[in-house]
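User: Predict the structure for this protein chain, please.
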Amino acid sequence: MQLQEHYLTLRQHYRDTGIHLPLSVTLEEISSVLFCSKRNANFLLNKMVVQEWVSWSPGRGRGNRSSLAFLREKNSFLMELAKEKVVKGDLSQAQQLLHNYELDAAYQQEFNVWVQQQLGYHLEQKENIAIDVLRFPFYREIKDIDPAYVNRRTEAHMIQQIFDTLLVYNGTSGKLEPQICHHWRSDESLMVWTFFLRKGIVFHHGKLLTAEDVKYTIERIHDPINGSPHRWMMEKIQSITVVHDYELRIELSEPNGLFVYYFSTERLSIVPRDFELLSNYKREPVGSGPFMVESNDESQLQLTAHTHYFKERPFLDRIEIWVWPDYDGEKMLFVPPGEMKYVPHPIVASEVEAHYKALDHIEKGATYLMFNLKKGGPQSSFLFRKAIEQAVDSQDLIEKLGGKRMLPAAGFLPARSIESQRTHSKSEAKRLLIDTEYKGEPLKLYTYEMRTNELNAEWVKEQLASVGVEIEIVVVPVEELKKAEVMQEADLILSGEVLADPVELSLLDMYEVGNSFISSLMDEDLREEKDQLIQQVFKAETPENRLLYFEKIEELLKQRSALIFLYHTQQSILHHQSLQGVTLNTLGWADYKDLWIERVSL
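Assistant: Here is the predicted structure, written as structure tokens:
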């Protein structure tokens, strides 16, 4: 513990004693408050005297009391210490200090405004060179940026900034475009695929990218020992041949016209063949993308421009993502004039000043409830699930909880939801429950740690209680919930999916990935029907036909009342008009390589 925190501990304990007012104490009392020996307590007090934080007159002789006076007011002292933490890049520890030592509300507001001023765009000088820095908050650490195991949208977005893929999908044209690979082809059978790589691509640690790295990337996911949830994309591979440094041939066991699309996803981002030999490779991975990881800990993720990027060097020099626990977007809505802010995921992007711009759209994907059909219990009854479906009114959820909850969902694609309407009736829910064997036993509703999920779960619990169904909410980290044994403890799971382009590939991944909540909770009959429709997806020749089969899977889930769609979310970004190149990708973030600052006088 730092000396400042020892002072705050004393000040907190003797909070009723005013500044400069002498307090009669013993060294034993001080040592008890500071949880240390009398000798160490005396040492700490003397250091505080030198700093002019306290005056201290030790008592002379046995039984004589000492005199202590505080010279620094707690709130201003605490805020100074918290600011020091922030300047050093430790926003989370600063917030923890303010919580532990109970900063008064007025000072907390002042601190929040000061933090806002540290975020946004800043111009720094480094060795007489101007450095463009963009800082913004995020509510949690970004711990694992390993493409082979990615399962959250934020990690997927960061992977797209740090790594490159063989191909990229152009959402506007609906076509694949070259990236690491400058050309590709397949034979007529769609079973032999050949990729031709660009020369001169350099990983962040200086090594040249070759076909051996691509082979290693594929084999790392393909090997069942590694346990990648994305292995399904590679499981039909029979052989991988490095023809030479810049040519790779892959042979499949059966035709697959979608196979080439897999190589446009962040899951198959190309990693160097010494990837797992690098220290801390999950938090600080090495790729070949436009940004490289400078540091990544519990306080912040720092990205710097890859100056040898084979395409265009990023315009910004550094991105700093500060960990702000419980950040939800509202804290940044107050934007002082003249401050250049960038706020990912604000709660209300429309309430902004004239010199700010807001981008938003309804995301592809949906929040949902999935029943565990593999587990015995009330949820195994079709009538019980129909009753729950009748009790859960998504419009009520949106109206009561608000935020980014925008549109009641009837499927994973918003277009279908706009065209569909679902009726709800609690009286019908109660009637259906009478025909079941439900005896009031509690159901375990699992979800993963995120404020939005927890609020949603509480709302579901309240709605179901109104029709006589008891819910026990269990909140665990998402990494824990993805474990099969934990998943199978749940009676139902509340989660959500975000679909990146191409949508049909995201849907395929959602139904096929090894730790999917939806597929993992299906019973054998439902899984078999789903798998038959997936086989038709592989045979379909156009995206439109593939989407038709995915619609049939959705209808199958709804007919069985296995899944209840809740709502679609609004994705949004708020940014100062001087920040250029801002677009909103399908994951709800801006691609950092396109951002640049137009320096204007305000």
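Residues 290 and 306 are 5 Å apart (CA to CA).
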